[in-house]
């Protein structure tokens, strides 16, 4: 009898531990259980008959207030949470910092809509208008670089400077990536796991993997355990299609604002890389070449290159990046 009772106690403890582990590893697709470095507010927008919420942080200057603003546009696999050190550096130098999660990302609504860089730029302009900000420097990383470029093209009068950190879209993916329908991409996204996220980040984003990068995996991988993950995966597929179908590479010549590119030279990011053979992959995504080529297309643009750095300089080499960023502002 004692042994039997002991068996049930052990079974109960194991079950409890499993539930606890599941709760620890599972994140909601709107990241309600992810703590952001500063208070999060919400800006209401509407699209295609849907009322949506756009999350953002509005961080005031900590000292030496200079009256200037920087808005930060995150990459496709991230949200405002990964900008912490950049926000601190800018705030300490007197800048007000606006950090939105774009619709479809982070803590913002995961809407089933037609995703458009034009629409995103319009929403961000409306956010700045509501906050009483007439002009801002725009820093965009990865997919955020495509959005920042579109914003600068649409609103040059409101763009003080365009700052591009390893932006994607420096080549037209339609020229060499096989077309994949949104539905087929959705099936691919559904296969994501924390382990597949880790492998992708290790092989694509950083030159050397460090333990502190696991927090990025915890967030991006945590949503794959959510009951609502299919919605997240569908939105991820929709924004993949947006990137593929809405290039900005042909419009760099039309940029009319001061522009600086920050390029980690070891970056080899290609949207849809898995659809290419190893030989094909070697022909594209070469940022040590793409950075210079892009700077040459943008009138008066400057380029700052980082050795031994991959896709996310502000995380891989934070001090070097923030020094370069502040110097460019």
Automatic annotation (TrEMBL):
The keyword Hydrolase applies. The keyword Transmembrane helix does not apply. Residues 1-21 form the signal peptide. Keywords: Hydrolase, Signal. One of its GO terms (molecular function) is hydrolase activity. This is Alpha/beta hydrolase. It comes from Pedobacter frigoris. InterPro entries: AB_hydrolase_1, AB_hydrolase_fold, AB_hydrolase_sf, Epox_hydrolase-like.
